[in-house]
Design brief:
heterodimer; A: mainly alpha; 30s Ribosomal Protein S18; 38% helix; B: Alpha-Beta Plaits; 2 domains; 4-stranded antiparallel sheet; 5 helices; 32% strand
């Protein structure tokens, strides 16, 4: 991030500009976001078991909500961790 | 008015080991007891749990579909809360029973189908005790080691 700004020498006085990090989106376009689909849900949580944001999953608001409900249901049944 | 519900049970493996058919019958009988009709019921999976539930590390999931009315669901929930062989449950409203589920249920009820018995589950309590004992002995060993250099240092200073 800072490297890029350093290359543009004329902008160095503007300080570090925020650059959104890019993530690989979760490929869940055609898949059903269901609590039973644990394999897919596993891809949408981090190392400590936290859900990924919409920016990271690349889902629509509606689909992200479905993902949220699915993960919470799976957690209740012991299929997914709350914390790891 | 009755609706179709998807009911996922998390069953205690100890109850399942005594006999899958009996465990399944006991779970589905609850639906009927509360004025419902069982449309399909099958063993979904037996797997390791993400965290211990009632000191169990593994559990068997039973996926059932049934037709119940709202009052029936409320009383069923109350009874499931009190049933010890049901560790967790999830009741969801669905439009219809998926075709695939009916097929899989039919496959399970066929004569040749053998339900694999769940593997032995080591009780979490026992394991925790074992871990505690180990860590205690380790701590003692570490203490002994740490005492030695400090004693030597003290000797050098004098």
């Amino acid at each position: 991030m800072s490297m890029m700004n350093m290359d543009r020498g004329d902008r160095s006085d503007r300080g570090d500009r925020f650059e959104a990090p890019t993530y690989e989106k979760i490929k869940a376009k055609d898949e059903e976001l269901d609590y039973k689909n644990v394999e897919l849900l596993r891809k949408c949580i981090g190392g400590q078991g936290q859900m990924f944001s919409r920016r990271r999953t690349g889902l629509s608001a509606q689909r992200q909500r479905m993902l949220k409900n699915a993960i919470k249901r799976a957690r209740h049944l012991g299929l997914m961790p709350f914390v790891e | 008015m009755s609706r179709i519900y998807e009911i996922m049970y998390l069953l205690d493996n100890n109850a399942v080991r005594a006999g899958w058919k009996e465990a399944k019958a006991a779970a589905t009988a609850l639906i009927e007891k509360h004025g419902g009709k069982v449309l399909s019921a099958r063993r979904w999976d037996e797997r390791k749990l993400a965290y211990t539930i009632s000191q169990r590390r593994r559990g068997t999931f039973l996926l059932a579909y049934g037709e119940l009315d709202a009052a029936g669901v409320a009383t069923l929930r109350r009874e499931l809360d009190l049933t010890e062989s049901v560790l967790r449950y999830l009741i969801l409203k669905v439009e219809a029973v998926p075709e695939k589920e009916l097929e899989l249920t039919r496959a399970e009820s066929e004569a040749g189908f053998v339900v694999p018995p769940p593997p032995e589950d080591v009780l979490a309590i026992e394991e925790d005790y074992a871990e505690d004992e180990e860590s205690e002995t380790e701590d003692e060993a570490e203490l002994d080691e740490s005492n030695v250099p400090s004693a030597e240092l003290a000797g050098e200073e004098v």
